[in-house]
From TrEMBL:
Keyword Transcription regulation annotated: yes
Source organism of this protein record: Neotabrizicola shimadae
Boundaries of every HTH lysR-type domain copy: 1-60
Family: Belongs to the LysR transcriptional regulatory family.
MF GO annotations: DNA binding; DNA-binding transcription factor activity
Keywords: DNA-binding, Transcription, Transcription regulation
Entries under Pfam families matching the protein: HTH_1, LysR_substrate
Protein name: LysR family transcriptional regulator
Cellular component aspect of the GO annotation: cytosol
Length: 316
């Protein structure tokens, strides 16, 4: 027997409110409309739904059982309405964001956390990949946004790129490294220590070669390579090795006081970090809200980084 779900919902409202008029008001319907629905339901099941002559209305055992199903339908309907409303407002949904490992681990993961403090109903899936990998993921619909570094001549047709942070590299080392006590660092100081090689395929590898050219060194001693951000930080903090890192990544780890920047100017990359997305593709409200959050966070971060660099690095 097929029953009208709306009739079950109205039955539940009438029983819970104690009367037809009250139940109709609860649902935003007219009293005659609800009375007709209850009469149709009784006719459909062939049994009375209310005990005769009782006020407030009291259900029969069958009426009470059907009302329980009506409450479940009503609750599901309200939850569905909340889901739709939350999705449209960007307060519910799923965001899929990926990007280059160092930036994802150092900054984006923290921004995800602060974003979810404000929007706890949004689920975020984070992934890793270089620029070309992320472009394929965006094109294939496996990602909504990507956080990648790009140079002006590397713009990818069919994609929009929003700059969030200019490229800025530094030479990183452990806090308390002997070179932090040198008043005027020279190129010879850098070549006297071992180095950490960037991840294969990372733009930092090209930047390291630029440093070699700028300081006139044919080669550097590489003692460690292929590590994640956490492993590179740990290695640096426990050794006298040096590494080329984005200054923003080192800045993000400043509270841990494990690694620091050397006051040595190195060639700067002609690229910036930014949000990559498919051109013309509509982001979900949740993804659009997250993108706005990231842009605002980086806007504030740029000013903090500049003050820190002037005061701490060059102001030593």
């Amino acid at each position: 027997m097929k029953l009208n779900e709306r009739h079950l919902m109205q039955l539940a409202a009438v029983i819970d409110a104690g009367g037809v008029s009250e139940g109709a008001a609860l649902l935003g319907l007219s009293q005659p409309a609800v009375s007709r629905a209850l009469s149709m339901l009784e006719a459909r099941v062939g049994e009375p739904l209310f005990l005769r002559g009782r006020r407030p209305l009291q259900p029969t055992p069958l009426g009470a059982e059907l009302a329980a199903h009506g409450r479940a339908i009503l609750a599901a309907s309200r939850l569905a309405s909340l889901s739709v409303s939350g999705y449209v407002r960007g307060a519910r949904g799923t965001v899929r964001v990926g990007g280059v490992p160092f930036f994802m681990d150092a900054m984006i993961s923290r921004m995800i956390a602060t974003f979810q403090q404000r929007e706890p109903e949004i689920v975020v899936h984070q992934s890793y990949g270089n620029t070309q990998d992320m472009a394929k993921a965006l094109e294939g619909g496996q990602a909504d946004l990507a956080v990648v570094p790009l140079a002006p001549n590397e713009r990818i047709p069919g994609f929009d790129f929003t700059e969030i942070l200019p490229g800025r590299n530094i030479v990183a080392c452990r806090t308390g490294h002997p070179l932090t006590r040198e008043r005027r660092l020279q190129a010879a100081h850098l070549t006297a220590y071992p180095w950490v090689a960037p991840l294969p395929g990372s733009p930092l590898l090209t930047d390291l070669h630029s440093i070699l050219v700028s300081i006139g060194a044919p080669d550097l001693t590489i003692r460690y390579s292929g590590g994640s951000l956490m492993s590179v930080m740990t290695y640096l903090s426990e050794s006298d090795a040096l590494a080329i890192l984005p200054f923003s990544v080192v800045f993000a780890q400043r509270k841990e006081n494990r690694i620091t920047s050397l006051a040595f100017e190195v060639p700067q990359p002609n690229r910036s970090l930014g949000l990559l997305r498919r051109a013309g593709a509509d982001l979900s409200p949740a993804a659009d809200s997250f993108a706005t959050h990231v842009v605002k966070e980086f806007d504030a971060l740029k000013h903090m980084i500049k003050r820190h660099e002037n005061a701490v690095i060059w102001g030593r």
